[in-house]
Amino acid sequence: MFFMKRKQPSCIYFLMSWIVALALLVTWSPVVTLASEEMEESIPVELKISPDKDRYSPGTKIQIEAVAKKEGKSFEAKIVIKTKMDKEQTITIEPETKIKGKNYVSKATFTPEDIIGDQAGSMGIEFEIVMSDTDKVWVGRANKRIFVDNMPGTVPAVDSEFFISPEQTLKVGEKIKFTVHTPYKGIIREDAKFLFFSFNSVDTTQKVEKVRTTHDRKKGMYITTGYFTPRKEGTYTPFFFLEMYDKEKDEEISGSGAVKFDVIANPKIETSLSPQTATIKFGDEIYLLLTYQATGIDSAKFSREYNYDVTEINEEYDEENKTYKVLLKFKPEQKKTHKFEATVKNIETDTKATAKTTIYVK
C-alpha cells in the first residue's frame, strides 16, 4: 500500500504534462500555418488607351498599354474586355509583355468591331498582372471604360491667325503678302490653301502665288506665306485652310482663318518698247513692239501717240497676261540718232504712260 501511494503522484504528473504539451501544440499550430503561406502585395499600374478620345468608332484601332514595376521572378498578365451592349460579352486577351528598365510593359491592340460589330455601347477594359517569387506575390490591377458609337465624328479645329502686309492702302496691281500662323497639332496631311468665294470677294479668279509652309519648332506653330496681286478694286475675304494629323490620337485637326480687306483703284499704265536700242542703215525700216498694261482702269478706251510717223501693223490683246501689244513699222528719214517715244493714254481717266527707245541710223 505504501508503494502504491508513492507511484500515484508520478502518473498524475505525466498525465498533466501530456495535456499541457497538447495544448501548446494546438495553440502554436495556426502560427506555423500562416508562416508557410505566401504574402500578397498590391502594386500600382499605369494604364493608357491610345488614341485618347471621348468616343470611338467601331473601326478605330485601339492600343492598350500597361506599365507596372517589375517584381519577383515570374509573371502572368491578361486583359479582360467586358462589353455592355444588347447582351454582356467577355473576352480575354493575352498582351505582349516586355521588360523595359525596371518595369513590365504590356501592350495589346484590338478593334471594337471585331468584338461587337457595328453596335454602340460601352466597353470595360481590365488589366491584371500577377508576379511571384518563392514566398511572395505581387498583384497589379487597373481598369478603364470606353464608349463606342457609329456616329460620324467631328474634326477638331484650331484658329489660324491671318495677317496681311501692307495693312492699309491696298491698290489694284500691287502685291500683298499673306502670313498665317497655325498652332502645331500634328503633321501636315494636306498642303495649305487660300480660297476666295463669290459671296464675299469681288474676284475669285486671281490665285495666291508662292504658297509656302514652314514649321517653327520654338514657337510650336506652322507659318504659311503667300502673295496675292488683286486685279480689281473692291472687297476681298480670303479663307485659309491647313489639314493636320495627330498620330498619337489618330485624329485629323483642321486649322483655318480668314481676313477681310478692301482694295482701291490704282489707275496706272505700264508701257515698254522693244528693242530698247537698235542700229539700222539709212533707208531701212525697223519693226518695234509696243506693249502696255492697264490696272485699276475699267475702260479699255486707249489712245496712242508717237513722236514720229509710224504705221501700226497689228494690234492684239493677251488675255493671259492682261496686256495689249501693237506692232509698229518705222522708217527714219534722216541719218541721226532718233529718240522714239510712244505714249498710251486712257481717255476717261486721263492716265498716261510713255515708253522710249533709241534708234541709230547710219
Characterization of this structure:
- The protein has 362 residues and is mostly beta strands.
- The protein has three domains: 40-148, Immunoglobulin-like, CATH 2.60.40; 157-264, Neutral/alkaline non-lysosomal ceramidase, C-terminal domain (Immunoglobulin-like, Sandwich), CATH 2.60.40; 268-361, Sandwich (Immunoglobulin-like).
- It has helices spanning 2-36, 112-116, and strands at residues 39-43, 45-50, 62-69, 74-84, 88-93, 96-100, 103-110, 121-132, 136-148, 157-159, 161-165, 170-171, 176-183, 187-195, 209-216, 221-228, 234-236, 239-246, 251-258, 261-264, 268-274, 277-280, 286-295, 302-306, 311-318, 323-330, 337-346, 352-361.
- The strands form seven sheets. A five-stranded mixed sheet has the order 1-9-8-4-5. Strands 2-3-7-6 form a four-stranded antiparallel sheet, with no helix packed on it.
- The radius of gyration is 45 Å and the shape is rod-shaped.
